[in-house]
Amino acid sequence: MSDDETMAAYAKAAEEYGKGFARAKDTFHEPDYAAFVAGLPDGGTVLDLGCGPGHWAARFRDDGYRVAAVDASPEMAAYAKDTFGIDVSVAEFEDIESEALFDGIWAFFSLLHAPRDDFPSHLLRLRRALVPGGQLSLGMKLGEGERRDELGRFYAYYSEEELTALLGVLGFTVLSARRGNGKGLAGADETFVVLTAHA
């Protein structure tokens, strides 16, 4: 179930977020993109989970991949359609019911909005949705506990060790991890990790 305050924050900021993040040349995450697509077959099928304004989904499409884009925010879905021509399914993490369908899942700073208690079950859904050996990119903010940011959005924080261990328990093999620092929509400078793994 989506968090109402988080959804309200994204509804209010959809256009600002899109212009700031979707329109900028996101060279900072090029290593993460390269690590992810290195494990995909040519023309493979990718799920962009929590696609936001749709810029990554558009990148996958333009690079020749078949893309399914999902986001819980109708406003973000509308922005993705209007700006990039991406058809986004408005759905929540719990709605992912596919089995062995995707060659890759791009969960790029979306699952950090899921409560810690629900996180393992979401990862299991993603593993089921991947073909054997399918690729996962998981972007998360580093820290401890759960809290809201200045915009009211809910976040769950983890250490890199926690994430790596949990992925291992759930049947993923972590291939690489990259840490960095960046400013998000709320303007705070935070540390993140992007884990690339396969099922």
From TrEMBL:
* EC number(s) per entry: 2.1.1.144
State any single GO MF term: polyprenyldihydroxybenzoate methyltransferase activity
Keywords linked to the UniProt accession: Methyltransferase, Transferase
Question: What's a single GO BP term from this record?
Answer: methylation
Q: Which InterPro entries does the entry mention?
A: Methyltransf_25, SAM-dependent_MTases_sf
The residue ranges of the Methyltransferase domain are 46-134
Residue ranges of the TM segments = none
List the Gene3D superfamilies hit by this protein, alphabetically: Vaccinia Virus protein VP39 (3.40.50.150)
Reply yes or no: does the keyword Transferase apply: yes
Q: What is this protein called?
A: Trans-aconitate 2-methyltransferase
Species this protein is from: Tritonibacter horizontis
Gene that encodes the chain: tam_1
